[in-house]
Input
Amino acid sequence: METKFTHHQSAHCENGVASNLLKHNGLDISEPMVFGIGSGLFFVYLPFLKVNYAPAISYRPMPGLIFNKLAKRLGLKIKRQKFSSEANAVKALDENLKNNIPSGLQVGVYNLTYFPDEYRFHFNAHNLVVYGKTETDYLISDPVMENVTTLTHEELRKVRFAKGAFAPRGQIYYPIQIPETVDLKGAIIKGIKNTCRDMLAPMPIIGVRGIRMVSRQIRKWPVKHGTKKANHYLAQMVRMQEEIGTGGGGFRFIYAAFLEEASVILENEKLKELSQEMTVIGDLWRDFAVEASRIYKNRSSKEDVYNTLADQLLDIANKEEVFFKKLKLAIN
Output
């Protein structure tokens, strides 16, 4: 039982799944365009929620929102289901595969056996496509992998019903209706306006204000919690940024590619200039991650390392505030 499905590697799982499923269904849309229209660029700091014993930091909206917003803005219909029964979840997926419907799944990372050990931890917001089944395995297109792969029936059951924060509950999703024509220009503008609202939100834990709050917390962590816990918090922040979901620099590079593509479609040269500016900001996020990793690996030669790192993050927040204000003006 196998559907003819073309696997395309991507930088981020949810964008990649959405792009690959839509291409399979006749709508050729790039990963950056999915990300931009779906307002995937985001930041939130949730100190009251712990992930791997560290405050939760997310560089993206809630799982599923990117694809849902994309669908709404392009007039697509997506079917999305969660299950309380594992048997019903298996039945729904197998029924789709019988009907040649490749299906997106939200899964936990910890039991993904094809991931390197260092990437396997308790994180339940990963996405992949199942496009076929054999007597022993499911055929998997995981967009962050170079090639297609497989999971045994039991391995897929485990990742579909992983426990903890954002438990996927066997979630399955796939397009059921795509119009013959879509309003790409209108969707791009809505996506950009939404991202500007999010990143400039007047709330202390969201967008550029959230980044500033984390900068302040980095200064306090070693004093309040000790070096060991402060370093664990930094390690978790970098892991969420660079290893799972490409949040920091990676998302900025994807967004820069989106703005470049959008500049052509909207015939707006200012967006091309802002694309280059966002690439520079992406580099700053990468520099921040490198310096943070030196600190938690005890390899930094700098003095007053936590305040220096906090200054780096504050500089990023200030630059992003200026950037999103300019982007808001450019699209209006």
